[in-house]
Amino acid sequence: MMSPQFTDVTILGSTGSIGQNTLDVIGRHPDRYAVYALTAHSNMQKLAEQAAQFHAKCVVVPHALAAQNFDLNWVNLSPKTKKPDVRVGPQALVETAADSSGRIVMAAIVGAAGLPAALAAAQAGKRVLLANKEALVAAGSFFMQAVCDNQAELLPIDSEHNAIFQCLPHLENKTNQSPDSPNNKGVTRIVLTASGGPFRQRSSDSLKHVTPDEACAHPNWSMGRKISVDSATMLNKGLEVIEAHWLFGMPADKIDVLIHPQSIVHSMVEYNDGSVLAQMGNPDMRTPIAYGLGFPDRIAAGVSPLNLACVGKLEFEAVDFVRYPCLELSFMALRSGQAACVALNAANEVAVESFLNHNLGYLNISHIVSEALDWQVGQGWSNPSCIEDVLTIDQLVRTFAKEVCQKTLKS
Ligand code: NAD
Ligand code: MG
User: Fold this and answer.
1) Residue 273, C-beta contacts closer than 8 angstroms, at least 6 positions apart
2) Average of pLDDT values for 325-340?
3) What b/e string do you get for 131-143 counting C-beta neighbours within 10 Å, with b at 16 or more?
4) Which of 14, 223, 266 has most ligand 1 atoms within 8 Å of its beta carbon, as the pocket-test mutant?
5) Half-sphere exposure of 294 (CA within 13 A, CB side)
6) Mean pLDDT of 76-80
7) What span, in angstroms and rounded, lies between the C-alpha atoms of 171 and 410?
8) Residues 233, 132: contact at Cβ < 8 Å?
9) Burial zone of 115 (CB within 10 Å; 0-12 exposed, 13-18 middle, 19+ buried)
10) Pocket test residue of 93, 106, 109, 356 for ligand 1, highest count of atoms within 8 A of CB
11) DSSP 32
12) Is 393 helix (H, G, I), strand (E, B) or coil?
């Protein structure tokens, strides 16, 4: 268990929505946390500003041009602090995640691109704050094994999983409990709540021509564009079902999804005596981030107190799988196995990128994912057992999905 002394933090994906919220929380506790490393794939200006403000010791950028760009921005800022060590490329990202400095690693890169570095942090036995759900979807079994083998601490940052973690019985290590394990302590079911996204009440016909900006206009959460589209299709909830399976050792038929438009109840755990524990709060990612940073302590997050009288009512409804085919596809992938989960995620990343670039219709996202899953079955791949296997399957599916996107574009 980590002591509440001064800790240095590495943020993978610091310029993104989760990265910025993490820095916001860290900035509230200068007596407790310092930034060791920050990483970003683009927006070198923001990275330079963050590095200057938080006195980062090093930054990781994707290529030499980005490094030049970072330097230029650094000179323009002319901060009083020493320039951080600028490291370049995917290998540097992995090495920095595993550095002996950076006791806490926030894994907040979007997509399977974040897997190698998140896994490296787990293998180095760090406290890993996992926002990057795609890493667990693609590599759940050996990611959890790496956590276990290296006595890493895995704290879920996804708000639903963080809520579940908070509602589980108090155990030294709450993650990776199998329902049959003695650690399970009477947990019978996990209920993930879902807002239903921006199109919950729109007719299916009207969805054909929705724009990326419409899909990204989430009613309750402010997030990066990829996860915002995933929330609209509810493939995000599908990824979260798979994530919950690996984190908490729950089989697919003990994980339910419930629509809750207000996003106040972040998820629930049901026990065999009829009790259901829920975690509530305003929809603000600084709550789970602060929980992960401070655990087992509670630290201030800057989140406004929940005023239930103002919220007025909390509503719940069953999910309509016809409206959200991506959720059903995700359950199918989970039941099918790890290779199918890699395929689900890779095809979705390709389809969402294509949609965000205005090259694919919104309703085609689920078609691409469905075709990729069918194609994957025909390949007869066995389940991946190492990161190289995952990345190979991931690349093959991406190539296939890109071809299907092209064909869809032409038709
Ligand atoms: P974002 O798009 O806002 O930020 C992504 C970050 O990753 C940026 O810093 C970007 O530079 C970096 N990045 C992008 N591609 C990269 C690559 N190929 N290699 C290295 N770095 C790369 O995304 P976000 O909304 O902050 O989400 C980050 C992760 O957290 C996602 O996996 C998402 O599903 C998860 N998550 C986000 C939220 C949220 O509220 N935003 C909530 C729950 C879970
Ligand atoms: Mg979530």
Assistant:
1) 186
2) 97
3) bbbbbbbbbbebb
4) 223
5) 17
6) 87
7) 55
8) no
9) buried
10) 109
11) T
12) helix
What does the block give as tokens for 116? Answer: 């190698």
Could you tell me if 257 and 321 are in contact, meaning their C-beta atoms sit under 8 angstroms apart? no
The SS3 assignment for 60 reads strand
The amino acid that residue 150 corresponds to is N
* pLDDT value, residue 171: 61
> In the structure, what pLDDT confidence band is assigned to residue 221 with cuts at 50, 70 and 90?
confident
Place of tokens 């065999």: 272
- The residue written with tokens 């998140």 in the block is 118
Distance from residue 376's CA to the centre of ligand 1 (Å)? 26
Q: Is the minimum distance from the CB of 129 to ligand 1 under 6 angstroms?
A: no
Q: Which of 176, 101, 99, 161 is nearest to 130 (CA)?
A: 161
Strand pairing category for 127-130 and 153-156: parallel
Q: Domain map of the chain by residue range?
A: 7-156, 180-280+309-333, 337-411
Is residue 13 lining ligand 1, measured as CB closer than 6 Å?
yes
- Site to substitute for ligand 1 among 227, 237, 239, 353, most atoms within 8 A of C-beta: 227
Give the SS3 label for residue 3.
coil
CA distance linking residue 144 with residue 95, whole number of Å = 20
Find all residues with CB under 8 Å of 380, minimum gap 6, and list them.
none
**Could you say which ligand is closest to the alpha carbon of residue 223?**
1
Q: Which of 163, 29, 10 is nearest to 97 (CA)?
A: 10
Structural tokens at position 352:
């969402």
Q: How far apart are CA 317 and CA 260, in angstroms?
A: 7
φ and ψ of 271, to 5 deg: -115, 165
- The finding on whether 19 has its CB within 6 A of some atom of ligand 1 is yes
| Fold adopted by 7-156 | Rossmann fold (3.40.50)
Q: pTM of the entire structure?
A: 0.96
Where does 337-411 sit in CATH, by number? 1.10.1740.10
Atom 18 (ligand 1) nearest CA = 113
> What is the full DSSP assignment across 185-208?
TTEEEEEEEE---TTTTS-GGGGT
Tell whether ligand 1 has an atom less than 6 A from the beta carbon of residue 15: yes
Query: What was the pLDDT predicted at 47?
Result: 98
Residue 182 confidence class, pLDDT cut points 50, 70, 90: very low
User: What number is the average pLDDT over the span 307-320?
Assistant: 97
Taking a 5 Å cut-off on Cβ, the residues next to ion ligand 2 are 158-160
- Which amino acid residue places its CA nearest to atom 32 of ligand 1? 132
